[in-house]
Amino acid sequence: MKVVVSVGGSVLAPDLDSDRVAAYADAIHSLDAQGHTLGTVVGGGPTARDYIESARELGANEIELDQLGIAVTRLNGRLLIAALDDRAAPTPAESYDEGREAIRRGDIPVLGGIVAAQTTDAVAAAFAEYVGADLLVYATSVPGVYDADPNDEEEATRFDELGASELVDVIADIEMDAGSSAPVDLLAAKIIQRSGIRTVVLDGTDPERVVRAVEDDDFDGTEILPEA
Ligand code: UTP
Predict the structure, then answer these.
(1) Kind of pairing between the strands at 135-140 and 198-203
(2) Model-level pTM greater than 0.70?
(3) 120 has binding-site annotation
(4) Where does the protein principally reside (predicted)?
(5) Which end of the chain is more exposed for a tag (fewer CB within 10 A), N or C?
(6) What is the pLDDT of residues 37-64, one digit of tens each?
(7) Which phi-psi region, left, alpha or beta, contains residue 183 (left: φ > 0; alpha: ψ -120 to 50)?
(8) 95, 120, 121, 151: residue to mutate for ligand 1 pocket, most atoms within 8 A of CB
(9) Which residue has a Cα nearest atom 29 of ligand 1?
(10) Nearest atom within ligand 1 for CA of residue 9
């Protein structure tokens, strides 16, 4: 199966604990050893937010802040590349083409951010669409898609399954709520909708959950079902 795995920066590198990155690389290696074709996308996490906050205070504009964010996603990408060793493409792919070429060579590409004004959620969806992935897995810090931000609202309930159009509606509602954050952003949801890629959103704190989701279709999270 061809799988794109998106690992949130808050999941891969909430700090610089090398054991956590090594555990992620082990999970990717084991899927690779099972014969899956893999692409990975890595987020910026708290380090990106710290840089962005500081630069905002220094008067940087939003595009400059995004460029900082992209640089941090690629730094996190280099950590994963170090752990994946010779199975990974040697540098983070800076374009979708570079990522696809790495897959064609038989390497595992690691992408970070690509262009300003996006997130790695959208990068993962676009890359999955570009390479014709069978499955897109979002390993995030929350166990799925909820009807509200579970960090803000105790009553938030999780969807076990959502149609892609329902996902778009749910995310649009959450994003309308100032300060709320959704595990997958609206652009990503729209790309998932048009591409019809089967998508799973799960808590990726334990990378073994990604392996079980891919290998055994066994996960505790939200499944986004393609629409005809
Ligand atoms: P992330 O996609 O990692 O943000 O990009 P996030 O969802 O807040 O973080 P995670 O899930 O915890 O990792 C970090 C920042 O990098 C810039 C944006 O400023 C974003 O907020 N970025 C990222 C881009 O501008 N373009 C991209 O394609 C990706």
Answers:
(1) parallel
(2) yes
(3) yes
(4) cytoplasm
(5) C
(6) 999 999 999 999 999 999 999 999 999 9
(7) alpha
(8) 120
(9) 113
(10) 13
